[in-house]
Amino acid sequence: MTDVIHTRAQLASSIAAAPGEIAVVMTMGALHEGHRQLMRTARQRSAFVIVTVFVNPLQFGPTEDFEKYPRSLEADVEACRAEGVALVFAPGRDDIYPGGAPSITMNAGPLGELLEGASRPGHFAGMLTVVQKLLMLTRADVAYFGEKDFQQLALIRRMARDLELGVEIVGVPTVREPDGLALSSRNRYLSPDERRSALALSQALREGATHTDADTVLASARKILADEPGVRVDYLALTSPDLGTPPDSGPARLLVAARVGGTRLIDNVTLTLAKAA
Ligand code: AMP
């Protein structure tokens, strides 16, 4: 049985009756297999999984796609039912921000200034603010987030640690289409031609990850992106697994953000660097 609720009062009474551990999967709706993988991972461990569906105005810039972001609650609820989710919490704006935008918000710190933070000012502060509010409202013991949004996951882990939130944060590997494209609610904005161009992102990351020397990783990935005229790269970055300076050898992360037509897409992969012999 999946309950669908919309207010914080309903949420409070539902969680008061929760048996055992509370797990939460936070989403902006338009659910796809990536979201469902988060739900499945949560369900493997916890009987009581809450999925939140809320398009958070605070994390969209003035020129971004808040108004046109896809909204499909009925289909989303069906997906949650199929995954054995106990509760769908789909609040309105006033339930999350009674009295309007909060005057006290999260500061994403130095890590929040890089990469996505540089391109989307205020995005991470808005994201962390709603994540913190939803963690409080759901009283979650464990929360699941996708590696697809790798910097977001890193910042949420950091917030949980730095502010002693007492919640366990679990990362879930990226779910992809058979041809490699990372699933995203924004993929539905892509025309068939753009969909073909968008493949260059995952191809570039996959090619880069076959190399072990930082310069070659970046050059080979950059070449694939440069060869696809439909893609305008925002950044291609090689970092350590916690988004710092890449090591000479050992685990690293390769991240990309690009515009394909009017749609901004991001993706990332893990890779292993090695010192030249
Ligand atoms: P969103 O609805 O886009 O805000 O995403 C909600 C959650 O689903 C976030 O933790 C995302 O990282 C995660 N997610 C989105 N796409 C994928 C994917 N392709 N694979 C795994 N997790 C994903």
Structural shape = globular
**Element order, helices and strands?**
EHEHEHEHHHEHEHHEEE
What's the number of extended β-strand segments? 9
How big a fraction of the residues is strand? 15-25%
Low-confidence stretches: none
**Biggest sheet: strand arrangement:** 1-4-3-2-5-6
Question: How far is it from the N-terminal to the C-terminal residue, by CA?
Answer: 59 Å
Main sheet makeup: 6 strands, parallel
- Class by SSE composition: alpha/beta
Number of continuous helical runs: 9
Average of pLDDT: 97
State the helicity in percent bands: 25-40%
The value of Rg in angstroms is 19 Å
Distinct compounds present: adenosine monophosphate
Characterization of this structure:
- It is a single chain.
- It is built from nine helices and nine strands.
- With 277 residues, it is of the alpha/beta class.
- The chain has a six-stranded parallel beta sheet with strand order 1-4-3-2-5-6, sandwiched between helices.
- Residues 27-28, 34-35, 37-38, 145-146, 148-149, 172, 174-175, 182-185 line the site of adenosine monophosphate (AMP).
